[in-house]
Amino acid sequence: MEDVGKQPTIRARWLGKELQELRKAADVEVQAVAQFLGKQRAVVSRFERGEFPISIDELPGLLDLYRVRDLKTRANLLKLAQEVTQRGWADGHGIGSGLANFIWLEENAQRMLILSTVVVPGLIQTPDYARTLFEVRTDEEDAEQANRWLETRQIRGSLIQDPGGPIVRVLFLETVLDHHVGGNTVMSGQISHLIDTAGLPQVELRALPRGVWKHIGLSVETGFTLFEMRNDWPTVVATDSPAGTVYAESPDIDWIAEGFESLWNDEALNEVQSIDLLKAKLKDVTR
């Protein structure tokens, strides 16, 4: 169940927003909903803000009140309500709600578009590469937390091995490979993993060669992950900032998807050229 008083998760906010829109479309006042559910007005408002989950048992009656007859719409909302009230493995993994949001998006996306300009994307990092990055920003007192994050990273990596998982397009700057994170041994393992990952049926990987600059026009400094969701849910983009991950939703982010496709089609090396680049880099670090 969602933690009351904490920042609502993306899934809770989506459900609340959908219910609010359906209520308004049906011209039903908040007070009428409160009376129907036998709750206070404030509770209904918290439902609609995503601050408190509505009971699965109460939702069908509420949809009847809002005159929602479409079976697909009802099924999608019931599934989303179940996602809100059930704790996934990430929610109880001691990693914070921000990353739990990100993992939920990964698990429910039908396609992911990833642009990385600084480091190898987390979803396809090796344990050694990820551990080296974590050691830079943690101290001995945070060792337990770092271990939880590394375990989480490995579980997330298994997503792309699942034939039922999302289609994943990865676009990275060639200069990402110049940062020999952890030294040649760690980096050679990471590059080998990238080559292997590119061979998975649901993964497409391309490199942006040196000199490409159009990603700067997207105001992208560290990259982003764009999630095209299942069940007619909104498309979401996640970008990192010093204050944490920032999320935005369609239609406000349509220009980002268009920018990615432009980079992918017009600026990036094709898949064969990208693998050749990776193999050349692998030779460099194993000399």
Automatic annotation (TrEMBL):
Concerning CDD domains, the annotation shows: HTH_XRE
Q: Please name the InterPro entries in this protein's record.
A: Cro/C1-type_HTH, DUF5753, Lambda_DNA-bd_dom_sf
Q: Which residues form the HTH cro/C1-type domain?
A: 19-74
* Membrane spanning stretches: none
Q: Name one Pfam family in it.
A: DUF5753
Q: Which Gene3D superfamilies does the protein's record reference? A: lambda repressor-like DNA-binding domains
- Lineage, top-rank taxon, reads Bacteria
Q: Recall the GO molecular function terms of this protein's record.
A: DNA binding
Q: What is this protein called?
A: Helix-turn-helix domain-containing protein
